[in-house]
Amino acid sequence: MNLDISFGQYCEGNSILHRMDPRAKIIAAIMYIVAVFLAKNLYAFALLLLSAIFLIAVSGIPLRIVLKSMKPLVIILLFTAVINIFWMEGETLLVSLGFIQIYLEGIINAILIAVRIIILLVGTTIFMTFTTTPIALTDGLEQLLSPLKKIGLPVHEFSMMMTIALRFIPTLTEETQKIMNAQKARGADFSTGSLLQRAKALVPILVPLFVSAFRRADELATAMECRCYTGGDGRTRMNVLHAGAMDYVFCILVIALGAGILVLNQFGGYMLSW
Predict the structure, then answer these.
(1) Which of 11, 65, 109, 236 has the fewest Cβ atoms within 10 Å of its own Cβ atom?
(2) Which residues are CB-neighbours of 84 under 8 A, at least 6 positions away?
(3) How confident is the model over 9-45, as pLDDT tens digits?
């Protein structure tokens, strides 16, 4: 197992989630996202936390790997926390320094939103990427969207495009890190200076990153052409997908999770304002 795994990369294993039908995992992931956004109070968020812990335990993915996949969210979490703490008003004033006013409701709201984003990432990555290979994800997504072929939509090409995008997230992340290390070795500074200076310092990173991305895309297109890839017309599958009992059980569990969150929302307590 690769302990340096990052967001969007498959983690090999033989857990229940690894063996599930990719179609069931896609459906379960969508329903889980809906359940996450249904949560409004502390009780519902506590249930979501338990569900995230359950998913991590069932998937067999080490907690260290899951936590490492959240690194790209640090800036988003900090931004949303600042917005809610300093701009949200409430009834319980904690700090008042001139125009800066911090309310208890703003702090609670920032914590709950951060928890929501983290749980959302944990659920989607475990269902969609950590336990599902890109090929299986493509087959599952294509079969779920197959009814749209009747109206002329290129379902296979769309599924392939989404899978390739997910596949290259860790590759581009690694490439960015290599470019940053190379620029630092040449004396580049990305941590000091004003906001404008930091933005200008990113130019030596973005230019070679885009060049590398286009080069990889060209190499991938060439490789697909050499293998006579012409799209989804007339293609057959080596592995035929079959849904099992565990697939239905997990979908039912996610539906029960959403129902439980709706019930817990009725118990009151602090209600999330976003």
Answers:
(1) 236
(2) 106, 107, 109, 110, 113, 274
(3) 778 888 889 889 888 999 999 999 999 999 888 888 9
Residues 229-234: contacts with CB under 8 Å, at least 24 apart: 231/154, 231/156, 231/157, 232/142, 232/154, 232/155, 232/156, 232/157
Quote the DSSP letter at residue 191: S
- Helix runs in 12-41, H state only: 16-19, 22-38
Inter-residue contact 208 to 188 (CB < 8 Å): no
Q: Is 94 helix (H, G, I), strand (E, B) or coil?
A: strand
* In contact, 160 and 221? CB cutoff 8 Å: no
Two tokens at 256?
Answer: 């029960």
pTM of the model: 0.73
